[in-house]
Every structure is written in structure tokens, then in C-alpha cells.
Amino acid sequence: MTTPARRTAPLRADCIADSAGGLTFDVPAAGEAGTAHLVLRRRDGREEVCLPLTPAASGRLRAALPSIVALPEGRWDAYACTDDGETRRLVPGVTDLRSLAARTPSGSRGHVAVRVPYATRQGNLTVRSWLRAPHAEAGDLRTGEGTLTVHGRVYGAALTADACAELRGRHAPDPVRRLDIRADDAEFRFTVPYARLEPGIWDLWLRPAGKAGPGVRIARLLDDVADRKPGPAGARVRVDTPRGPVEAGPYYTRDNDLSVSVTPITPITPVTQAAPVGSPR
Q: How far apart are CA 36 and CA 51, in angstroms?
């Protein structure tokens, strides 16, 4: 019988990522007889992936999530499930994600799959998954005088002579801004002139086959960062436009997609102080 102290004790899972994008999870075997599966449960509750836990070295149980096993985009909470029906939330143990930072997918399957385990704000283990087909990976972002130059690479698609980039206003009915790109095999580069953009949020897309082909959202996924949103992706600069001065800069969304934020600068009106009574005016 499991004691209350045992039931509330955290069950830690060590996690290692391989160069192909797969993950392995190790949990303690001692005192966990009957543990049958490691379960990844999608945050919306509609899907589960069950991974058998099998004996490994040093009294551990191991579950493997190979890169060839599809894991739809989303956040997947990790649990250990026993034969007697008990389900325990897992917390992160030792995590080794070094191979993710050095990973360069071939794109030969027409898609890129990325899985990044991380600790939630409550300290639990969750896996952030992306599955993009094709995928446009953002690289260096360089700020110029009123511009942003985006370097990147496309996976699972070929860049044609008609390839272009697009900036799509997220909330306003403004037309799409199309930009020419410079392509070198799978590498691309384009420059965003901030002065052409009205205030708001602009999402960055790549069209490998030109405006007649499908669009690919530009994102930064190929490393070990589960959530980039807390900070900007580059410097914000002041730009004078025909509509007035703005401040503009790149940032990553909660899905690690690349966007540009343009904010109007409100002029500061000087405050005139009333002259003291009896003083000359």
C-alpha cells in the first residue's frame, strides 16, 4: 500500500534528446513495480501517446519516443501510469538537450519534427512539440537603420525563382506586404523596411514557390528553447514614417513564430506650470 508521503513525492524523469529529434525518458524502478507506461497527454485532453516503460540499466525504467513517431503540435504533459491504474505527474530530472542545439534536419521527409521537454511554472514535466511541413527556420536577425534583415533556411521545399516573403497584418485589414528574397539553395534572406508598416503586429511568412504557392510560417524551432516569448528577438528602433514616428522590432510568439511589432510613438506634450500669484507674466 502506498503511503501518503510516497504518493505525494515527486517522480522524476531524466530526459535525453538524440540528434534525430527523438527523446528517451528514464524513471526510477525501485518501488515502482508495476509501472507500465509513460503517457504524454496533450494539453487540450483530446489525445494521448502511451510509451512502454521497460527495464534499463542501474535500476531504471526507460520509455522511448523515436523521431518517426508523430507527435502533433502542442504541449504534452508527462505522466507515469501503473498497472493498478495510478497516474502520477512527472517532474524533470536530469535533462540533456545538447544534441538539439546542434541538430540540422535533412528535410527529406517533407517535414520537421521538434520536441523540447521543459519544466512548467508548477515544476512539472511537459514536452513542447512542433510538426511543420515544410518549415522555414529563422536564423540571424540583423537590425539596420529602420530595417530588419532576416536570414533563414527552408526545409522540405525548394526555393523557386518566384519565391518571396510576406508580412501579414494580424488584426488590421491592410494588404499583405510582399518582399523579394535572395536565395542560395535552401538559404534565404530578405529585408523588412519598417516605414512601410502601419502600427500593429505583422507575422512573417515565406512563399517558396511565389505568391501562387502555399505559405510557410517563419519560426525559430531548431534548438532547445521551448518558449521564446518572454523576450524580444532583436533591438527595437525608432522610425519616422509618413504617419508619424513609430518604434518597431522583431519578437517570437508563444509558438516561437517570428513576428514584428510596430508601435506608434505618442509625442509628449510639455506641461505649462501656472505662474505664482503676484509674479510677472
A: 9
pLDDT tens, residue by residue, 14-41: 999 988 889 999 998 755 455 589 999 9
What pLDDT, on the 0 to 100 scale, is given for residue 281?
Answer: 42
Q: What confidence tens digit (pLDDT) does each residue in 70-97 have?
A: 899 999 999 998 777 788 899 999 999 9
Q: What is the per-residue pLDDT for 268?
A: 66
For residue 274, tell me if it sits in a domain: no
d(CA 179, CA 189): 10
**Is the same domain home to 101 and 215?**
no
**Domain range for residue 206?**
135-264
Sites in the chain below the pLDDT cut of 50: 1-6, 32, 279-281
Q: Can you give the pLDDT at residue 73? A: 93
Answer yes or no: pTM beyond 0.90. no
How far is it, in rounded angstroms, from Cα 48 to Cα 50? 6
Residues 128 and 240 in one domain: no
DSSP string, the chain: ---HHHHHS-EEEEEEE-TTS-EEEEEE-TT-TTEEEEEEEETTSS-EEEEE-EEETTTEEEEEE-TTS---SEEEEEEEEETTS-EEEEEEEEEE-HHHHT-----TTS-EEEEEEEE-TTS-EEEEEEEESSEEEEEEEEE-SSEEEEEEEEESS---TT-EEEEEESSS-PPPEEEE-EEETTEEEEEEEGGG--SEEEEEEEETT-TTS--EEEE--SSS-S--TTSBSS--EEEEETTEEEEEEEEE-TTSBEEEEEEEPPPPPPPPPPPPTTS--
